[in-house]
Every structure is written in C-alpha cells, then in structure tokens.
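Following up on my earlier thread - several people asked me to post the actual chain instead of describing it. Fair enough. Here it is, all 959 residues.
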Amino acid sequence: MSETNPAATAEVAAPHRYTAAMAAEIEARWQDFWDAEGTYAAPNPNGDLAGDPEAVARPKKFIMDMFPYPSGAGLHVGHPLGYIATDVFARFQRMTGHNVLHTLGFDAFGLPAEQYAVQTGTHPRVSTEANIKNMQSQLRRLGLGHDKRRSFATIDPDYYKWTQWIFLQIFNSWYDDEARKARPIADLVAQFESGERALPGGRSWNELSAAERADVLGEYRLAYASDSPVNWCPGLGTVLANEEVTADGRSERGNFPVFKAKLRQWNMRITAYAERLLEDLEELDWPEAIKLQQRNWIGRSEGARVDFPIDGEHVTVFTTRPDTLFGATYMVLAPEHPLVEKFTPAQWPEGTHQMWTGGHRTPADAVAAYRAQAAAKSDVERQAEAKDKTGVFMGAFATNPVNGERIPVFIADYVLMGYGTGAIMAVPAHDSRDFEFARAFELPVRCVVEPSDDRGTDPSTWDDAFVSYDAKIINSSNDEISLDGLGVVDAKARITEWLERSGVGEGTVNFRLRDWLFSRQRYWGEPFPIVYDEEGIAHALPESMLPLELPEVEDYSPRTFDPDDADTQPETPLSRNEDWVNVTLDLGDGPKKYRRETNTMPNWAGSCWYELRYLDPHNDEVLVDPDIEQYWMGPREGRPHGGVDLYVGGAEHAVLHLLYARFWSKVLYDLGHVSSAEPFHKLFNQGMIQAYVYRDSRGIAVPAAEVEERDGAYYYQGEQVTRLLGKMGKSLKNAVTPDEISAEYGADTLRLYEMAMGPLDVSRPWDTRAVVGQFRLLQRLWRNIVDEATGEVTVVDVAPADIDEETLRALHKAIDGVRGDLEGMRFNTAIAKVTELNNHLTKAGGAVPRPVAEGLVLMVAPLAPHIAEELWRKLGHTDSVVHQDFPVADPAYVVDETVTCVVQVKGKVKARLEVSPAISEEELEKVALADEKVVAALGGAGIRKVIVRAPKLVNIVPA
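Reply from S.P.:
Thanks for posting it. Predicted structure:
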C-alpha cells in the first residue's frame, strides 16, 4: 500500500489555494506593476516633480519614517515595524482623498562603515552602497508604497552639497536677541561699522585687524570654532558630543573611556535658540514623554548672575537662590573653568589650611593634579550623590558682594562647566552637596533660611542641609538691604533688585543646554566648506565651489590611542592628504594659499534637514522651491509652525536628532529659506519588537532557532539554557529576517502579523509560531472570493437591498470601526474587525455578495496590499486598488437594533433586557421595573432609588 502526502493531496485538490508560493508570485508581480506605473508618485504643485493638478488640489499628507542607517547586517523583523505602520497609514490616507508624500532615504555617513573600511580596506562608499542596495531589496519585498523618485542617501554629493550650504548659512549668521531671530552676519558687521553696536574696548571696526575682526564675529556666529572643553575619546580617536557619552563616562559606540580635554572644535550655537525651542514645543503634537525629555535637556531655570570680586577682577556665578547670598561661605569653580589658571597664585597664602592643599607644594601643583583626576570621571560620576566630596583650594579668595566677607575659592569635580557659568557660590547650610563639602573641608556653615522643623538655627548640630522654598529668610542684612523675615519669593526679588542697582549682578534665565559640538575627527562624513588663510582666519567657500567632496585617502582610520591615555591629541584621516589640505583658491581677492578644515561633520548633520530634500529632491538651484515647501510643510490651522504631518520613529532620538533638526529648521526659517519653523508637527514613537535571548551556563547567547522547550525548560544541544526577553539582533543570535517570514508565508502575512501584535506604541515579543494565524486569515479571505479548485471568482452580483441584514450590519460596523482605527493608527484593532467580518462570511456559507466582498478587499488594502490588488483585479476592476475610495459606513447599519441592558437589584444582576439604543431613561426604568425577574427579586419591597444609565444599565435600590 503506497503512502500519500496529505499536503500534496490537498495541493492537487485545491490548485488555486492561497499558499506561500502563490503569495510570492502575486507580491513580486504587483511590486513590478507599482514600479512600472509610478503608483506611489506624489506630485508637487510645481518644479521637477510637478504632476497631476487634480491630485495637488486634494488635501495633502506628508508622512515620514526616521532615517534608517544601512547596516551590513541587513534588516531583522523588528526594523520594519515603523515602516509598515507608516505604509498602512499612507495607503489609508490615499484612499481617503489625500495627495500623499511617503518615501525613504538613507542616513549613510557614520562610524560603522568607516570601521569596516579600517578592518578590510574597502572604501566606505562601496560597503555603504552595497548595504543600501540590500536594504532596498528587503524593503521592496514588504510592498512599501514609497515614491522612489524622491529617495537619496546623505553620502550623495548632490545631497551633501546642500548640507554644506546650510552649514554656511549658519556660519554666516548671528542671533539678534532683540529681534529673537537669526540674521545675516553682514547685518552685524554693518552695525559695528556704523557704531550702532559698540565693540569691546571701545575701538572702531576700522581699527581692527582682519584677525581681530574674525575673533569678534566668532563670538556671535551661530557656527563657530573655539578652544573649549570637549569629550575626548582616545580609543576612537575623536571627540564626542555630550549626548554620545554614556552615563558611566564611556563612548556610546565602542564603550571606550571618555575624558575632558581642551581642543579647537566647531560648535553650533544652539543655546541661542533655547527659549524658542522650549516655547514651540507646546504647539507640537508629540508624546508628552518626549517633550519632557527635551524640556529637561534644555533645562530652563530663573535666578541671578552675581559677580564675586577676585584680585581686582571677578568670577560670575549663576544661582537660582540669590536670596541665600548672605549664607555663601566659599566658592567652587569647575576644574575646567578658563579662569582657574588666572586666579591660581604661585604660593599658598599664609595660614592656608593643610587639608585644603591636597598635600601639594604649590597651588599650581594642586590644581594640575586635581584636574587630571577630574578629567578621568564622567559627569554622572562627578555628580553622584553618594560619593565623597573632593576638591582642592586654588589659593585665591573672593569677596562676597553682599557682606564683604573674604571667602576661599576651590575647584571641585561636583561643579560642571556645562551648567550655569561653571562656578557656584556655596551655601552649605542650604545645599546638601555644599554641606558635605563644607564638612569635609571644615568650612563655615551659616543658616540664612529659617528651618521649619525643630533642628534650630545652629548648623553645627545638623546632620544635613535644610532646603526649602517656603520659609523665612534670616541673618541676611547689610547697611543697604535686609531680607530678614521675607519669604523666598519676595527675598529673591528684593536681592535681585539690589544686585542690579549695585552693579554686581542681574536677574537672568539660565539653561542647561550647551552648544552643539559639531566636529568629528573621522573620514566618513561631510567635509566642512571652510578654508583657513595664512593668519588662521576661517573663510567660507563660495556656493559655486560646493559640493566640497571627500578626497580619496589610503588610510581611513583616525589615529587612535591607548583608550586610557587622556594626554593625547586627535589626528584625522583628512589631515594626511596634503594635496587636498593645502590649496590655492581665488575667493574673490585673487589666488591665495589656504588650508582646508580636516575635521568632518558629525553623522547628525545630514539628518537635520532631510525632510526638505524629500520635497524637492532634484533641485540643484535652491535648497527647496518655496512653493513646494509651503505646500507640503507650511503652517496650517492647528499647526502654526508647520512641519511634517506624521513622523514615526524610536523614542531613543528624543534629544539628539530631534533637537538638532528643530534648531536647523529655526535658523532656515529665520533666514527666509522655509516657511516652517518646526520640522515635524506630529511625532509618534513606535514600540520595539523584542525576542527571547537564550544563554548557556557561560552567559553566551545560543541560536534561538535551535533551542527546544521541554516541560517548561529550554535546552540547546542537550544543555539547559536560560531565557530572557530582550532586544533582537545578530549578536544575540535571535534575529529573524523579514526575508525568512516572507518566504514561508508571504510579505502580506508579515505585515499583518506585525500590525496585529499589539498597540503600535507598545513593545511586544516576537513569536514565529503565531505568524501562521494571519496567514490563515488571508487564506480564508481568498476562499471567500476565489474557488480554490477552479480559480474562479465566487461572489454573487446582488443589490445591497437584497443582502441579508445581519451581513449588512457586519459589513458597515467593520467599515466604521476599521476607518476609525486606521485614522487613529490602531492597526491591531482594525485587523481584529476585518477578521470578525471575514469570519462572519465564512460561517454564513454560500457565495459572498459582491458589495460585501469589495468592501472587505478595500478595507484590507492598506494592510495587505498585494492580495488586495490581486482580488480587486479578479473582481473585475482594471484600476489599482491603491487609489480607490475607502468605503463609507451607512449609519443606519452601524447602530445596533438592540443593546443589552443589565438590571441590578442590590448590586446583583437579576435580568438582561434587549432594548433600543435610543430608549429614554424614563422608558427604560418602566421596562426594567415591569420585568418579571425584577419583580420577583424585589419580592414586594418598596423602592428607595433607581439609577438609570440608558441604554445599558439600571440599578435598583430597595427601600
């Protein structure tokens, strides 16, 4: 007796069944069709991509994903979650009458490609373009409806030409505080020339040398080079922005130690926009958690700047509590403060406390040793509450301006150069860190805020500082002012007025935000369009010389050092190409010798403005056509700052990318290049697809696909392993590629599964075994329209009036629910409603009415576009389903004929009534009280109260 294969037998009996092989064929065919027809091309109102006037007349939707980096590892199934979601939403918007711009480019500069080049000798462009090609292939297989005419990579010279151009706009601008906007630097020069704005030292503009003029303008430019404290990472051979350093003081990439060093670097004066960056957050439709992170990063605080005289000069501090000035008994400067050397004397002052010196012979020795110690710590380590407070006396004394007291000046690592002025007045009685420091160094502690507890006013008896914003000020008066008896708010106002009147301070607002470090000592990044003359003055290249392309180099790596060696200096790959670095150029005043900038821009530069390139990708004359930018991103009602209609990406970009892009947008807006002051109006953070990580007894990850589950335990090659839910990735050996799932079930199944896993903004675990559920949904959908044996369409042509009412109600409830869910990006519940309708049709049996079948296919189209196209064509339509109108529900069939009303007596359910949804409270009460089960439950008792919530609840309270 011969054996038979049940699967093979079923395949023969149903040759037109929806299988993985059929899905692959359908999907490839429709992807080719979409490409050939330009189905997803979004017309602009004019310009290079001008098109269908009728489409441009529709309402528009600009939908974006965060820029992907083309990794050599390719995609795993976690990566496309956001891409599929935006695709579903974009498809729905097309079907509801919108002109939709949805495309995807590549953020292709960056460290991984450069590190790969160092290891293999492969040019970063070669490996990056190969990675892009692979990623494009993977994304295409998912059926994403991108306008491919608009795609680009940041490494394209005709793209980074405009990145360089924007840098020059920023370089050639300054921030006018009175106008609250950026203005061309030429306007500032005109003010200096005319005398409208005074120069430091009282000299005239004509008296200054070229170098002196450059130095003056450098204090104003929005992009400027300066010698400033930076995060130097010897292990990477580059400096890092604060945001690229982890909480434990190591590099985000490579996990190398990071040290504080002073280097000449390019910076962006983002601090000039701190107030506007805060204010404009309120008008953005962003998750509150992201707004909060930006607010905290910007860190606005109100207080006063106070000048403390030292040796005929002064050090300025910022304090939020000027009302406690009479309690300041010492000062602390950050070890990196630029005035430390200036105020450090050659010898210790007579009577210096031995414990203040750190055991060093001279103040200079003590300061140098402590600075080296502080440079090896992260900002988090330096500010840790639990650590012992360390520091060293500088050998200098300052004068407290409110009482004339001579107070010692220390450097200590708990004060950071990145906050305020890098110097503090220490009020140890009312600040815990100052209190601990004062105890450690036996410094005076004076109470100036009356404690509200029973500790008294003698700090020598306290265990910690007393901190309060709701208390009375004491011990705070001089011959001109007294704060005694005032509350904190009134005292702050009075002392601030006195500081300003006395010329020793002023009320001010301070921000935690620091200027953006914009230099990298790498090869694979945008070259700066800057050259230096023989005096070292920076000159901008003219627009005609852009793009300044990266030269070829033999060695792609910056010089790296012992990761623990802080006493090193960067050496960039570009600096080794002498022919490129040293050039003769005519910048308008004849040929001269110049030296090019050998740092490159950070990888964040290209992603600061890419939304604008999507609008007008082939324009070589201007950054973006003004009419096109106004059409896609200009201000509208409810979005006064303009911006992209929907921007989807991970919450990990809350500060870095989003804050930087907002800054660039505001500069471009101020200079009149764009009409949108904000880049992204609505932001949505998708969750993460997680996966189980399996580790052996050594803690090493083992291949998840080869782990077996037995009796609730997990085994790999016979050895028991542990399981923990975490990230998905190649290094964790738990990555599943979209190619694998598409091959086994089809891309439409993968799309449905990722959207059905749960709410889009919530992380969820991947389960390959559960994917088959969505595959079966598509098989049932196919069977409800196509005969699996013959391939013929089985729907029946009937008028809506001839369809049974139960099916009509199921259809219109689904339409109403799915429409609302897709608009609200609740894709999981939309799929549940489609499934419910599809199951209803399956259970009903018989041929499906054509209006119902077509409505179902149209609802499925945004979610599973390939099978929807195929079924739409089989239903006799010749136009693509992509631009069909999404169905509209008939309200008459959406509302139930009856709803179930629960009747409770003494809080217990006694009856369930089927009533009209429109029943009044009075009528519902009568019906409930007349019900025989309710009458029996009451047993003749009187009624004290009846609570009616029509149409679903009646609660009866007996007397």
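The chain is about 35% helix and 20% strand. That should answer part of your original question.
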